[in-house]
Records
---
Amino acid sequence: LSSHSRAATFVKGPFLHSVTKTSIRISWEADVSTSGRIDYGTNADYGSEASSPESKKHHEVLLEGLRPDTIYRYKVTAGDAVSDDASFRTAVKAGTRFKFTVYGDTQALNAYHKKVVAMSHRLEPDFYMVLGDLVSEGDAEDQWQKWFDTEQIQLRMTPFFPVKGNHDGTGEVLQRYFPMMRKWLNYSFQYGNAHFVNVTVHRRGIRDPELNDKLKNQADAWLEADLATARANREIDWIFVMRHQPYLTSSAFVEWPAAFDKYHVDFVLSGDKHYYLRGVPVANGNVNPDGTVCITSGTASKHADLKITDQEFFDTYVDRNNGLPAADRVFYHCSYFEVEGKEVRFRDYDSESGKVYDWFRVLKDDDEKVVVRENSVVRPRAREDSR
């Protein structure tokens, strides 16, 4: 490795992203330009290495030829700096149990952000997602640095998949650090027997009208093609769509794509609104037991009051003043999914107490029909109340 006039220090990372069954990307950023190396293997002796020989601050290294569902240990050397030993798990094969966490809108409230990260880390997910608005000001480097510092406990051990929010600016920072965002900010990936689709249509901060139009048109066409391919894949039992803006708000459907019903999207995960909300399964604008469940998990930092104008479409909601529990004034969530074959189990946690405030279980048969749908709801629907 090249020598330097002063010792290098890790500024960001090492952090994990873009995991598959046989590969993963490991990135880091140092405070001075340096070459780098990753030592990795299935035990403490490592045994394999991958180099990044160019002298620069930001490095991104792809490890390939890995074994599926295998725990690897690794360390990064950047100039004079050597990271602590850490580990990662490659993606599982279809049908193998896996778990992941999601939360949204971490923004700039660092004290609360830390509690949500700690809760997620305790749940030991195989990967995790932040549903947009990672920072409050997308051009503020100090906020991105604080975000990386707070998330580092997870980033070095757990592969990360981002969603762009309106506060994240043009998305240039996300594209710099996370390669899956570099093609018009949209991407999809398979993990186990589930397909995950990130849709970026929130274009605030992008001032070029032509780019805005390209993003919108490309997202519509790409989403249709991507969902069609996923549903044709016999390994895929579950489809999750992530978008910062909810498709179903507390009062209305917003830009609901026909492709969701056509290809039977199982779950839509969103942030943006600073509350927790879970909808009933819907299809073609109506309550349908085989439909899509929308979850808004935007409570990793700020909170907003929530008014439900049409309770027919919603099962559970929590904010700082209303809903469940009514007495809580400060409430920071972390949502957790466990996927095992034809079954999905979900829990939503209070990040400070660890208490579970919402849960559900969904089970499909071999024909992809929902045969079990259990959840925590005890409140009757509005339509039932009016009879």
---
Amino acid sequence: MRVGLFLFVVLAGIPRVCEAQEIKCPGTYGGHLQGLATDEEYNIYWSFTVEIVKTDKTGKILASVEAPNHQGDLTYVDRKVYVAVNLGRFNREPGEANSWVYVFDADDLTLLSKKEVPELVHGAGGMAYHAGKFVIIGGLPEGYNENYVYEYDKDLNFIQRHVIDSGYTRMGIQTACWFDGAWWFGCYESEEGLLKTDKDFNLLGRYDPNYAVGICP
């Protein structure tokens, strides 16, 4: 599987994909691309649901590690990579998910620790970090008319759940990042699959395309 990473920018409040050099992650992986993160050196961390891969900005593989299904969207903080993981079923009513955060060393992707996050009752699917706090997002059963964001402190202690008045999005929210003073969330929707909220998770807009397989500044 070879995938490309393109520049994501905001012009006049509307996201665009700019023409940029494609960065390919070489190799074949048992899952599919589920998230992206970058560090201060512009290395890229790719989550393929069953394997985490680290490349430099040219696409050269620096490290990789197999991991249990389902590794979701990930984020980089202080030389560590945090990955939202669901070992149960997604998009079900509470009781069938098994939600965790796996923490890897950013240098060689050694697994450092695991932390259960049972608040993600529909399955932990992605996470991001901003201003000393993590947010984790995930699945959503049909019939719900809003999405949920779960806030944690830097030690992954649960703080509170936030509601996004987005209407139903297929399988909830897949990817997340903080950029340009706003939260951005990628969903599996053929139209308007990119949600933008303010810092308090009030919906500011929905845009094309969806960025459901990875979004990072």
---
Amino acid sequence: MSEGGSVISVNVSTRKGTAKRPVEQALIDGSGIVGDAHAGPWHRQVSILGADGIGRFNAEEGRTFAPGDFAENLTLGGIRTDEVAVLDRFRIGTVELEVSQIGKTCHGADCTVSQLVGRCVMPTEGLFCRVLSGGTVRPGDSVAYLPRRLTFGIITLSDRAFAGQYPDRSGPKVRELLAAFLEGKRWHPEFTSALLPDDAERLHAELIAAVSAGTDVVFTTGGTGVGPRDITPETVEKICDKLIPGIMENIRVTFGSEKPNALLSRGVAGIAGTTQIYALPGSVRAVTEYMGEILKTLEHVLFMIHGLDVHG
């Protein structure tokens, strides 16, 4: 899926915190726009602002600010930049940019627009990108907007649910909680679900397929206890490159203080390739408790996996 737009203006400046001046063309290399103050070995190499955002701001303030006045490198038209998510991409000829941050702290006293009207549009609508491939950009160039799907896999492990003895409730609960968490955010989510018996080989194959497909986050439910058919943690750990023990340790301590049986859960969290994997217990109540804690750091883990310093 892609959406077309165009470059309205290409803008550069030699000092940070100042308005940028339009130029006829600019060369983008691995550091950003050559000669621009914001180029460098970091995640905010090229800044973008939508022309529609500038138009709304002008209408609200009763002023006429031009492209570059907000210190953006590229002013784009025809694309709803207020719907763009982190890790989405823009392609302009040979140039490909990946969105690494949305909004930023205003320069305040050093921001020309803020000095004039007391606020700026960049802190809420500005997009910041890192360069994936370079080239020359000019006003009038076509822009392809390439949204990135944030993919979730939900796997329920239950012999009895698989046999049809009762419906799967924990998997749908995970999806419900994810949908509520993602509501109002810019991500473009996509979900897949699977129901398996408590079988290590089948779970291993399902997880390998999810990792190979580049699934962003996988949740398993069930099989985290100490019974003879509880095989989920061992299976998950075998394919993880890194474990994140603190997440599950915190959950066990948080809920185990009131319900000692919660300490028997062997839920694990880890990373396989670029896929987050969380093994949760199978009860709806436990899923709700675990998800409430996991979702606090899920986006930050995603950023870290993709090398984004969101505090920069």
